[in-house]
Amino acid sequence: MKKLVTLHEFIMDRQADFPYATGELSRLLSDIAVASKVVSKDVRRAGLLEDFLGAQGSTNVQGEEQQKLDVIADNQFIQMFQSGGEVCGIASEENDDFMAFETEYSKKGKYVVLFDPLDGSSNIDVNVSIGTIFSIYRRKSEVGTKATLEDMMQVGSEQIAAGYVLYGSSTMLVYTTGRGVNGFTLDPSIGEFCLSHPDMKMPETGRLYAMNEGNINICESGLKEYIETYCQQTLPGASRPYSGRYIGSLVADFHRNLIKGGIYIYPDTETDPEGKLRLLYECNPLAFIAEQAGGLATTGRQRVMDIVPEKLHQRIPYIVGSKTMVEQAMSFLK
Ligand code: P6P
Q1: d(Cα 137, Cα 155) in Å, to the nearest integer?
Q2: 119 CB less than 6 Å from ligand 1?
Q3: How far apart, in whole angstroms, are the C-alpha atoms of residue 273 and residue 294?
Q4: Pick from 202, 167, 171: nearest CA to 289
Q5: Same-domain pairing of 105 and 152
Q6: Is 202 in the pocket of ligand 1 (CB under 6 A)?
Q7: CATH number of domain containing 124
Q8: In this structure, are 222 and 323 located in the same domain?
Q9: pLDDT tens, 225-269?
Q10: Ligand 1 centre and the CA of 241: distance in Å?
């Protein structure tokens, strides 16, 4: 019987790897795991509690209708970060502005967290996988002071940790601190995340592409050509074309591609000229994981983790996945 390695044990064993091995990052990652367990519990019984399902009756800064579970998850993570003491401030997809925590206790926090508490909200009510995405930076402002916007607006290559939680057929937490990618599956019988996918590597190529093809005629022609030429035709040496798999939840599509190989494309379009996905709390954290697992993450013209943010909720075009597939797609772009 293989020994179960819990997330907590794994973090403590690896603590020496962390650049600031004083335990704060270990505690922060453990706090994220605890909040994720609570959100997982809420997600899995949402259908039974009328004040968990459906629209909140408000829209977020993105102009998207907030779902009740969006707000519940957002509050859960914020409360955890506020009480944990490692975080001095946060930015969330669900909050117009960033939050600098006010207590002297929190001001001593060395980290900021940018997160999407529940990505794929349109899938909540139809019982399709959704996820949480998080990105952790060391603060730039002085410890003991209030967090600043500059703390939030850091280039992706400055991330010290990033990860996601997938509320799928099982609940998984996948993260990196810049030393590889490891996946943990929640065992509800003991309430622990246990190491299930050590040292994850994204296959160099694959046969799955994830794109909302409803955008195919309103995005740049090179992408349409890539999909029609490379994905929808049987290429020499292949037995059949690629397969389209689009879940409508970035975390689920990304996770499948991380394991099986594949590409996810959300381009800029006539309706979303900057793209749809958010740089700071969707694209950067998954880009960190993709690169650590051997994949690529680009706007089609630039490495995502090189982008110097200009706005908190900045959107970018996003192509992420298996190295060879991303390079092929980019070769079709002018
Ligand atoms: P569309 C969910 O809102 C999300 O941010 C991603 O999780 C998902 O891949 C994408 O948007 C879906 O967008 O326009 O295809 O519905």
Answers
A1: 10
A2: yes
A3: 29
A4: 202
A5: yes
A6: no
A7: 3.30.540.10
A8: yes
A9: 999 999 999 999 999 999 999 999 999 999 999 999 999 999 999
A10: 24
